[in-house]
Amino acid sequence: MNPISLFCILAGVTLNAGAQLLLKAGTNAVGHFEFTRANILPIAFRLATQPPIIGGLACYVISVGVWVIGLSRVDVSIAYPMLSLGYVVNAFAAWYLFGEVMSVQKLVGIGVILIGVVVLARS
């Protein structure tokens, strides 16, 4: 995998992970909600107008473009497993940004993911 291909794949992964974090920030701003017939439109409007949610959706759109470019250069059997790096990024970012718990079990899972990505990338 050449540097440009690697950049495209990692940029897609990063944008995808960033989108998830922005969506979480947007839902945190709205707070816990239940969809019922009475509140579906007001909640949908509040969600749709949250800047972090708009930013997250924009990240998704850009990530698809970058990802398509990456897929044109890299075998999908190599590129797709790289998406799992998003789990690693999000686990640490959620711990840092949102105060989510980082347990030993999560750290072991992250280690397994990283080993798997290295093995696949070297194949």
UniProtKB/TrEMBL annotation:
InterPro entries: EamA_dom (IPR000620), EmrE-like (IPR037185), Small_drug/metabolite_transptr (IPR000390). It is found in: Cell membrane. Residues 53-120 form the EamA domain. GO terms for molecular function: transmembrane transporter activity. The chain crosses the membrane at residues 53-71, 78-98, 104-121. Keywords: Cell inner membrane, Cell membrane, Lipid A biosynthesis, Lipid biosynthesis, Lipid metabolism, Lipopolysaccharide biosynthesis, Membrane, Transmembrane, Transmembrane helix. Pfam families: EamA. PANTHER family: 4-AMINO-4-DEOXY-L-ARABINOSE-PHOSPHOUNDECAPRENOL FLIPPASE SUBUNIT ARNF-RELATED, SMR FAMILY PROTON-DEPENDENT DRUG EFFLUX TRANSPORTER SUGE. GO terms for biological process: lipid A biosynthetic process; lipopolysaccharide biosynthetic process. This is EamA family transporter. It is a multi-pass membrane protein. Its main location: membrane. One of its GO terms (cellular component) is plasma membrane.
